[in-house]
Design a protein that fits this description.
The chain has about 350 residues and is of the alpha+beta class. It is about 20% helix and about 40% strand. It folds into 3 domains: about 70 residues, Immunoglobulins (Immunoglobulin-like), CATH 2.60.40; about 100 residues, Immunoglobulin-like (Sandwich); about 170 residues, OmpA-like domain (60s Ribosomal Protein L30, Chain: A, 2-Layer Sandwich). Strands 11-10-17-16-13-14 form a 6-stranded mixed beta sheet, with no helix packed on it. A 5-stranded mixed beta sheet has the order 2-8-7-4-5, with no helix packed on it. Strand 13 and strand 14 form a beta hairpin.
């Protein structure tokens, strides 16, 4: 009698054949779950651990035995890697600006089950995209500081087989970035001195305090464009009731163009600024001016409080600014506290040199 094994070394879950041949045997059996067999033959086996199979054959001549050992490799090999290992995330308001992708890649051998925490069960070999989304993506309210993102996220892979083999591999990705509030765009109506800019001096009339308001607007708007790239500014210029209709129309066109030029000089693209000149149309009513003055944080001097007509005229020498498409409109409070407010409020047209000095 002989017993021979076709392959004595296998991996977990693989099959191999054990083969035998006997002469004059009446009863032949193999242990370890095989049982009774023919006098000669072969049998496919798939042991889950190294196993020695013993064949027992009996016949007229007595009993003989033979053995064959099948060596089972239960070791699981695996790799897990992340590329890149650092991802950036940025959110402004409710809009995700940057959410970089990385890739987890894994390989295994001699495994039949693989899971990755926190992903779950995965194929034996494969890859999966990973976004740089942090744990906390909630919006930051306007006016609050940005929330910094600095997180390390670990991925742990466990690969096993039914033979008891197991291995664990890990990889980590560093998430950096920020969650920011919607940038504030400070909208304040811009005011002009009486009858400025005139035809002879189209660049004169935008005094220092109003330039500073526009500079603040431009700084906020450029940041806001990261949040809404389609945003625009609409400049709507007005004149007080004095002067002819054609004169005031030309005047408001010069006013609005001077503001647009200033914003462009501050780095805002010209196509982001649309303009409208209304001349002496669309005047603020005196009742509206009174309501504004009642709530104006910049309280006027008493001499201006008493001169309701002058105050009304001053309020109508302005340009309103609208943030599109939100429709948010500039505050129309007169800047009584500005150092150059006297020149802007003056009812007669101030002298050229005084206005130039105020710029």
């Amino acid at each position: 009698m002989t017993v021979a094994n076709a392959s004595a070394n296998i991996n977990c879950s693989q099959n191999t054949d054990i083969a035998w041949q006997t002469t004059d045997a009446v009863d032949v059996s193999i242990d370890n779950g095989v049982g009774a067999v023919d006098a000669s033959g072969s049998k496919s086996v798939s042991p889950r651990a190294t196993t020695t199979y013993t064949l027992t054959a009996t016949g007229p001549g007595g009993k003989v035995t033979g053995t064959e050992t099948v060596n089972v490799n239960t070791k699981v090999d695996a790799t897990l890697s992340a590329n890149p290992t650092e991802l950036h995330y940025r959110k402004i308001g409710d809009k995700v600006i940057t959410n970089e992708n990385g890739t987890l890649t894994w390989t295994t051998s001699n495994a039949d089950s693989v899971s990755i925490d926190p992903i779950g069960k995965v194929d034996l070999n494969g890859s999966q995209a990973v976004k740089a989304e942090p744990k906390d993506t909630s919006d930051v309210p306007e006016g609050q500081p940005a929330r910094t993102i600095d997180e390390n996220r670990a991925y742990t892979m466990t690969a096993t087989n039914v033979c008891g083999g197991s291995t664990t591999q890990s990889a980590s990705i560093h998430f950096t970035g920020s969650v920011e509030p919607i940038p504030a765009v400070v909208l304040q109506s811009i005011f002009y001195p009486t009858d400025y800019p005139d035809k002879s001096h189209p660049q004169v009339g935008l005094v220092k305090s109003q330039q500073l308001e526009l500079a603040t607007l431009a700084d906020g708007f450029k940041k806001y464009l990261e949040y809404d790239g389609d945003a625009k500014l609409s400049i709507e210029s007005h004149a007080d009731i004095r002067g002819s209709k054609p004169h005031n129309q030309d005047l408001t066109e010069r006013r609005v163009e001077r503001i647009k030029q200033y914003l462009v000089d501050q780095g805002i693209a010209a196509d982001k600024v649309q303009t409208a000149a209304y001349g002496k149309e669309r005047q603020l009513e005196k009742s509206e001016v009174k309501n504004l003055e009642d709530t104006n944080p910049n309280k006027p001097p008493k001499v201006r409080e008493k001169n309701k007509q002058g105050d009304w005229l001053a309020y109508n020498r302005r340009a309103d600014i609208v943030l599109l498409p939100s429709g948010k409109k500039s505050a129309q409070f007169y800047p009584h506290n500005a150092d150059d407010s006297g020149i802007m409020w003056q009812i007669p047209k101030p002298g050229l040199k005084k206005v130039e000095a105020a710029q």
